[in-house]
Amino acid sequence: MLSRFNVFTKITLLILLLLIPVISLYTYSNRESVNVIESEIQRSTTNRLSFFASQVEATIYQLALYGVSIGQDSSIQEYQRPDYAGMPYERVKLSVAILEKMNLYNAASKWHSEITLYFPRVREVLSTDYYSRLEYDETEFEAPFPQAWSYDGDSFTWHATEPVSAMSNPKSARLITKISFPTNHLTALLDQNKVNNSGDPFLFSPEHGTIRNSSANESLVGQLSEQLKAPTLAQTGGFRTKLNDTEYYVSYIQSNALGWYYVDFVPMQQILSPITSSRNLFYMSITFLLVMSFAVVFALYRSVQLPLLQLVRGTKRLSAGDFSVRLDHSERGEFSVLFGRFNIMAQRIQELIENVYEEQLRRREATLKQLQSQINPHFLYNCLFYIKNMARMKNEEAVVAMSLNLGEYYRYITRSENDLATVREEVRMVTNYLKIQSLRLERMRFTIDMPDELLSVTVPRLTLQPIIENAIIHGLEPQAEDGEISVRGQLIDGVYTITVEDSGVGMSDDALERLQRNLTKPLDGDMGCGTWNVHQRMTFLFGEDAGLRYSHAESGGIRVTLTWRRETN
Fold first, then answer.
1. CA of 543: how far to CAs of 130, 413, 535, 537, 566, in Å?
2. Percent above pLDDT 70 for the chain
3. Virtual CA dihedral for 533, 537, 539, 542, nearest 10 degrees?
4. Which residues cross the membrane (predicted)?
């Protein structure tokens, strides 16, 4: 059965048979080592973090409990009595007694904290901070108080109200207690926790950053903080990570009071001694097997790997559009036959693509010629009908002007075989056209504002005239009052824009949306070909982003915007 396999399959099976015992040994030893390391590190770091967390939580709970119980003090209750307003001496005496009680609490507490009492009834403030003069500001109590400690950059703050139900509406409270402590207390505990272990503890919050010990490794803590921001952390846990080419085990516990995480990380190398012997055994085994497998790998690389790499590179070049790629392999074998078939396939694909591309170019050129030719009879018919109507009305001046304009028009489209014209030439043509229409419609006015940087840009011939013609026929003629047409051009962020607006009767949103959709549909008998041709020619020449856009004008009519990008011009 083995004789039916080719050389590549035999060598692959041999390598797999050699690697199976090595992989099994390594997997077993690595799994046991990792289990020992993770259990040891997780147990020690978790115990340290738990002890540190219990210290912080106990102190914070004591501060919060004092904030709730202080409102029941008789001195504070008496200080809020309205009849004390006329007894300043008694109020000062009572306030001194209250401050003494708060200072006694600070002296008995592990942490020195700042305690501030707000009395909404009498609009006064008492605080243990003697260096700041606090004024009662009711705007501070418009929003509900959070049910947790808040962090403001260098201290943690907690609010309590009396009654407790006033937390959601602080303005209704009889007493508001604000307790805050600086972060240097936490820094001191972190320093103390770091003295007797090899970790580097710190506090982490995804929103606020870190609070570090005094001798923290800034680089490692910063890198670890970025990793802690990525996942959604659980209440407690641990993971392995690599920082500065050194593997660490990270443990964390979330604080119930602060919402921050207590984090500690230690290098795994300190507890790698249990796996040293198994690792040495693995290295000795893999070295022996590598020496034995060198000849096999070399033969596999030369006979299989090199031809495969050449075939992959040729396939990538072929998929990228380089159909001139050919593979050269002088040795006989399976790959020489494959390379020969690949070369034949690439040659046939190249010939087919070139034929298709030439056919597309001819079809594109024919389509442009067709679109250009469709618009000329459309404009001619409108001009001839206009001359006929003006002749019947004995309006010789309009007949002469239209005839001259018609002559200039055909001189304009027949003087060159180029289907493109500059914006300056287009503006000159539509100026003549608008003058003729203003003679026919004495109540029509027009303005043209075209910047100099746009005049030398090329566009398809007869681009503006069909747009202006539609504005006059469908916008201005149906209304009885005076009308105006405005033509403006501009260049913004590499995009050319020509806008034609009229103050005509306008149209509904549905009609405007239907008119926009018709620009991309095939031409039929129910659609006008003038603006459709303009949109199609702009799309063919300048890409799918170019063409016409319809919208409502501020004057009540229709705004037609012609856009195309500068780099496609």
1. 73, 24, 11, 10, 12
2. 81
3. -150
4. 281-301
